[in-house]
Amino acid sequence: MCAEEENIQIDWEKCPIHNTLEAIRGKWDYKIILSLNQGSKRFGELLESLQGISAKTLTYSLKKLEKKNIIEKNVYLVVPAHVEYTLSNKGMALKNVFHEMRKWGRTWEK
């Protein structure tokens, strides 16, 4: 249970807020999601749009987000190989979460 009242023991493993934050907690995770929010991107396009990330870190983060079913890796069987990353339905559902976080940030973090 994710307590919404005072003095209640919180079971973090069952708390939807905790689980949502865990899904996007990596330094680059939310940035990758926001970048893909603009549409599908190839690895190089993501690398270019995320200033300061290394190729190794991007690879790791993409695999992690894919494993969590937040993004999808689409491989096109052409020569040369063509791979694009896109948000899954689960990833697209984060749009509203980020929208609310943006509103909160604009209101309170001035």
UniProtKB/TrEMBL annotation:
Molecular function via GO: DNA binding
SUPFAM superfamilies tied to this protein: Winged helix' DNA-binding domain (SSF46785)
Keywords: DNA-binding, Transcription, Transcription regulation
UniProt-listed Pfam families: HxlR
PROSITE patterns linked to this entry: HTH_HXLR
Annotated transmembrane regions: none
Domain HTH hxlR-type, residue spans: 15-110
InterPro entries: ArsR-like_HTH, HTH_HxlR, WH-like_DNA-bd_sf, WH_DNA-bd_sf
Protein name, UniProt field: ArsR family transcriptional regulator
Taxon lineage: Bacteria, Bacillati, Bacillota, Bacilli, Bacillales
